[in-house]
Amino acid sequence: MRSLIVLLLVTVSIAHGAAYSVPSTVDSIDWTRVKPVEELDHYWTRLPPELQVYRNGTHGTHPSARITNGLEARVGQFPYQALLLTEFGMFTIMCGGTVLTPNFILTAAHCVMLDQTTKATGGMAILGAHNRMVVEPTQQRIRFATSGIIVHPSYTATNFRFDVAMVRLNAPLRFNSYVQPVRLPARTDQRLFDGIIGTVSGFGRTNDKDGILPSILRYTINTILSNGACAARWGSLLVEPHNICLSGDGGRSACVGDSGGPLTIEEWGGITYQVGVTSFGSGNGCTDGMPTVYGRVSYFLDWIRANSDCLAC
């Protein structure tokens, strides 16, 4: 049991994000400073001492990164995709998110929390981005404050349970062809989505061999697993009812920089629904075939509605 807990705490690191220097203005982001968050001291200091041996990839484990084995998105293909640059003093975390309303972005709690009690000092949401490295005419860049960060009250930083949060923007975004809200499952929809093809998107790394984060939004698809099948790979302590899992078959997965981003399904008529929020995956790399674990959106519908202005949630 102890080894399973250790594995969880190590593996969650792969989905946490990436870091870069704090931008001085909206348009002057120093993207050359982007690197995996696992290389930063703050990430490791919150974990138990026995996990420090994993910091440099010893014991056969190392931080991983993705979207791996995916495809480049078309411009406007994922209008609900958000890129969050979350500031913690002298460094900033890069994560994904999804547009809920003109005022709120859904993301992972570990993208906006330094530890159990310390929220980010603020940050920026980039909407409508295809190439994050340039200020495209499709983009909207809107800041948010620490007062706009809302974290699930049961979130636990050391094991990433209830790993969901919302960000309230300082100013409302504008809906257009490139920025649109995501649809969430209906409260009456009792499906677990087992066996359905899921899509994960983001700006995370594309392989386990280098530290390069792609500039272009990417995506990949795989099959949503039952929680039982997922627990058979991870152990029953790591997969709970508030989680949903995507198969890692074929090395197709999400990765560092993709945390907080969406897992979606497409229904008849091409309607897309978000069913998961990227939380964690294997510390042995993004292409090792292990399932990626997400927060199950349908589990959190009441909390989302109570803490946002999403009337359709």
Report on the structure:
Strands 4-5-6-9-8-7 form a 6-stranded antiparallel β-barrel. It has a 6-stranded antiparallel barrel with strand order 10-11-12-15-14-13. It folds into 2 domains: 2-61 and 79-181 and 302-306, Beta Barrel (Thrombin, subunit H); 197-298, Trypsin-like serine proteases (Thrombin, subunit H, Beta Barrel), CATH 2.40.10.10. It is built from 4 helices and 15 strands. Mean pLDDT is 80; it is low at 1-16, 19-26 and 50-66. The protein is mainly β.
Helix and strand layout, with pairings?
Blueprint: H1 2-11, E1 18-20, E2 35-36, H2 41-45, E3 71-72, E4 81-88, E5 91-99, E6 104-107, E7 122-127, E8 140-151, E9 165-169, E10 197-202, E11 218-225, H3 227-234, E12 243-246, E13 262-266, E14 272-280, E15 292-296, H4 301-306
Principal-axis shape equals: globular
Name of the CATH homologous superfamily of the largest domain: Trypsin-like serine proteases
Domain count: the total is 2
Class by SSE composition: mainly beta
Strand order of the largest sheet: 4-5-6-9-8-7
**CATH topology-level name of the largest domain:** Thrombin, subunit H
> How many β strands by DSSP?
15
C-alpha end-to-end distance: 37 Å
Helicity, as a percent range: under 10%
CATH architecture assignment name of the largest domain: Beta Barrel
Largest sheet: 6 strands, antiparallel, barrel
Total number of helices: 4
Strand content: 25-35%
The level-1 CATH class of the largest domain: Mainly Beta
Residue stretches low in confidence (pLDDT < 50, at least 5 long) are: 1-16, 19-26, 50-66
Mean pLDDT: 80
Pattern of helices and strands: HEEHEEEEEEEEEHEEEEH
- What integer value in Å does the Rg equal? 17 Å
